[in-house]
């Protein structure tokens, strides 16, 4: 019997550099938007203030994609390291880079060719090009002639002058539609630009909100050199509610064990929010759970990662966690920087974690569920109202629909202006389902602003709230009639007061 031995011996060695085709297998977890986020990371590390993503269309087809920035650029002596797989540099604290593979993996997940061109702070120009081709076996990286590199760097990018400039160019982008059918290309462009802006707005929201940089997207027509509209990326903050779902929250829960500390900021969204910050891409139900940030860049947006099961009733619960670098046993980010996996110690620290008032994670989930249930119950128990009709602005109508169960069979109530023979402020016209307002007060109340069908939303919302039930039922009761008299008297006096 040959017994197990601790050491495995070798005698001599053979040099086995990786086959260049291994590049083809890189970044398989990327999609176009996560790949672009990786390039944006590099621009942020280069202290760019402006980053432009431009897609080029030629003869109807989408051909290339550029990411251009005005950061400090790459020195000629550093560019080979930059193009090397795993070529790491000295990272500063706060840098987003870490593995030395982002640029390559992101690019080859989306394109067959990667060109990197840069002008450094001293004005020196340099360029390299990697191409994936079935014939290629070695790791021979192309040197781009300086005049071509300079030409690309000096194209009209319309970016503010920065310390330097870097252009990343992708050709043969695999995800681009293989057609010049204008309808399909247009459809792809509009869908893709929205996706890119949403994803970058989300993962970069803290950096964008802190004005670290601006990000733009546009499409260039190669034949004319002209670009369509340039769209900016706005921050999309997954914790950007206008008021908390429960007073006293968010709370910070801290768990400590074996020299490790885990700090979790537990938020509760208000029920029924329609904000894009709540309805993130993918849908709010799938965005509950953990959000990991590293150096203010969001790496992971939702999911409980095994510490709890996803549940519709927990859709208001989002937990903000800042991590530094991988901590063994606690968490690990994937090289695509699109996901954080948690280790066994994470679950343990979650169990231990407490807020100053002793709130635990279990308590938090309970509260989040209660807030969700109460908000649902409250809506169900609310008095049903007649839907709003003409005269109220669409956002107001939407809010009413969200907050109040409506009598869908009833004809809606309009709030409109009309010329009155007398001074009264309003007229309840049950036959025409309209609350008329006296035109003679309109200009004064507008105070110089322009009127329109949906003008004065605050006034109309108030009138809808107090008068809606006058339109319900067959007759007006005596209490209703009395109220009408009081409101008419008070509002008319008030409106005349505004006029004088
Ligand atoms: N836009 C840019 N401006 C300046 N330097 C850049 C730019 N893009 C890439 N580089 C240089 O190229 C190097 C390699 O980039 P790459 O994304 O492959 O790795 P990384 O950023 O170091 O690490 P990670 O794999 O975590 O992204 C960077 O470290 C940086 O020095
Ligand atoms: Mg990088």
Q: Can you walk me through this structure?
A:
This protein is of the alpha+beta class and 500 residues long. The protein folds into three domains: 20-232, Heat Shock Protein 90 (2-Layer Sandwich), CATH 3.30.565; 251-378, no CATH class; 394-499, no CATH class. It is built from twelve helices and 18 strands. The protein has helices at residues 32-45, 79-83, 102-110, 146-153, 182-203, 205-209, 344-352, 361-381, 394-403, 442-446, 457-467, 478-499; strands spanning 50-58, 61-69, 111-119, 125-131, 142-143, 165-173, 214-221, 231-232, 251-257, 260-268, 289-294, 297-301, 317-323, 331-333, 340-342, 414-418, 426-429, 434-438. The strands form four sheets. An eight-stranded mixed β-sheet has the order 5-4-3-6-2-1-7-8, with helices on both faces. 32% of the residues are buried. The mean pLDDT is 92. Magnesium ion binds next to α1 and α3. This is ATP-binding protein. Pfam families: HATPase_c_3. InterPro entries: HATPase_C_sf (IPR036890). Keywords: ATP-binding, Nucleotide-binding.
């Amino acid at each position: 019997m040959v017994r197990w031995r601790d050491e495995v011996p070798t005698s001599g060695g053979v040099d086995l550099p990786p086959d260049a085709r291994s590049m083809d297998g890189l970044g398989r977890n990327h999609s176009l938007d996560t790949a672009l986020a990786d390039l944006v990371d590099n621009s942020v590390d280069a202290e760019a203030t402006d980053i432009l993503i431009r897609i080029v269309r030629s003869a109807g087809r989408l051909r290339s994609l550029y990411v251009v920035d005005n950061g400090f650029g790459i020195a000629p002596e550093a560019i080979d390291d930059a193009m090397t797989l795993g070529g790491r540099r000295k990272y500063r604290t706060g840098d987003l880079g870490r593995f030395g593979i982002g640029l390559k993996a992101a690019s080859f997940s989306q394109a067959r060719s990667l060109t990197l061109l840069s002008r450094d702070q001293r004005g020196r120009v340099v360029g390299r090009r990697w191409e994936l081709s079935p014939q290629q076996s070695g790791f021979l990286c192309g040197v781009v002639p300086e005049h071509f590199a300079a030409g690309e760097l000096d194209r009209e990018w319309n970016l503010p002058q920065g310390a330097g400039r870097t252009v990343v160019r992708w050709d043969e982008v695999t995800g681009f539609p293989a057609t010049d059918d204008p309808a399909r290309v247009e459809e792809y462009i509009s869908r893709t630009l929205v996706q890119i802006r949403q994803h970058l707005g989300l993962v970069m929201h803290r950096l964008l909100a802190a004005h670290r940089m601006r990000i733009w997207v546009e499409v260039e027509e190669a034949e004319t050199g002209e670009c369509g509209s340039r769209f900016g990326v706005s921050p999309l903050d997954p914790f950007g509610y206008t008021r908390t779902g429960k007073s006293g929250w968010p709370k910070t829960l801290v768990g400590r064990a074996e020299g490790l500390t885990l700090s979790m900021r537990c938020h509760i969204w208000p029920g029924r929010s329609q904000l894009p910050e709540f309805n993130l891409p993918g849908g709010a139900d799938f965005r509950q759970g953990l959000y990991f940030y590293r150096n203010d860049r969001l790496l992971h947006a939702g999911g409980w990662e095994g510490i709890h099961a996803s549940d519709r009733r927990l859709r208001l619960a989002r937990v903000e966690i800042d991590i530094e670098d991988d901590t063994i046993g606690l968490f690990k980010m994937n090289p695509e920087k699109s996901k954080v996996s948690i280790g066994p110690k994470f679950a343990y620290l979650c169990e231990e974690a407490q807020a100053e008032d002793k709130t635990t994670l279990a308590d938090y989930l309970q509260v989040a569920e209660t807030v969700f249930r109460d908000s649902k119950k409250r809506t169900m128990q609310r008095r049903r109202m007649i839907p709003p009709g003409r005269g109220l602005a669409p956002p107001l109508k939407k809010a009413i629909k969200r907050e109040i169960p409506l009598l869908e069979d009833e004809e809606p109530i309009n709030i409109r202006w009309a010329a009155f023979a007398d001074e009264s402020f309003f007229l309840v016209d049950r036959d025409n389902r309209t609350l008329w307002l006296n035109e003679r007060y309109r200009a004064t109340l507008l105070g110089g602003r322009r009127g329109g069908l949906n003008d004065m939303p605050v006034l109309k919302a108030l009138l809808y709230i107090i008068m809606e039930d006058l339109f319900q039922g067959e007759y007006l009761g005596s209490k209703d009639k009395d109220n009408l008299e009081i409101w008419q008297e008070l509002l008319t006096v008030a409106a005349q007061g505004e006029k004088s």
